[in-house]
Amino acid sequence: MIKIMISSVNNGLEAERDALMQLFSNYEFVELMGSAPYNNTAYSGSSAYTTVKMAKECDIYILILSDKYGSEIEGGKSATEVEFDAALKDDPTKIMVFKKNTNLEIEPKQKKFIKKVTDYNSGYFRPSFNYSHELSTLVKNSFYNWLSERTQINCNLNIIDHFLRVAKSILDASIGKIYYRTTQNNVEIEYCYEGKTYDIHFTNEEIVKNFWNSINQLQRSYSAWIGE
């Protein structure tokens, strides 16, 4: 089963959640996770513990952003932001973000959360939608792209494995040679191009804390190496 978690505020996005429930009900190999309307069983744990556990264990984490931030829990964050942080720490490449267009004023904390999630360097590209049927189409296309990609890789990967997977997709093996080494604390990458060797190092800590910034740093370095 492919475990998919839908994460958003509960109030105001009922139609969107229902549209995704209808979409994924067509796939017998998909198990939906998250809050209403997907709760059809009880869990022997608190809501906070259970939803964070779901965010870590799901295969795909779908975040729907709107104008509302949601109720704050311990630490001053909303449940949605806590879930997002848990999914990000587990696997940054399993996250899909969608934003609903609205004429309503966006709550201050939600503005800050949206900026964090969609930052140009460290965040995610997020398609926007007006209606639930548009969201359903966007999610279906994204799901198919995910399936196509994941059928080509081993699913038992940790965050460093995912970093190297994305890194190797950036470095063009058809024009240069790629070498990498992982240690207990670091990832070391070498790229040989036109008789020259270029190297870049990342600590495991910075990859875990800022996955996409590290990827963008590699992309910028690679462009400089080959003179783009």
Report on the structure:
With 228 residues, the protein is α/β, with parallel strands linked by helices. It folds into 2 domains: 2-150, Toll/interleukin-1 receptor homology (TIR) domain (Rossmann fold, 3-Layer(aba) Sandwich), CATH 3.40.50.10140; 159-226, Signal recognition particle alu RNA binding heterodimer, srp9/1, CATH 3.30.720. 43% of the residues lie in helices and 21% in strands. It is built from 8 helices and 8 strands, in the order βαβαβαβαβααβββαα. The strands form 2 sheets. It has a 5-stranded parallel sheet, sandwiched between helices. Strands 6-7-8 form a 3-stranded antiparallel sheet. β1, α1 and β2 form a beta-alpha-beta unit. α1 (14-24) crosses α5 (132-150). The mean pLDDT is 90.
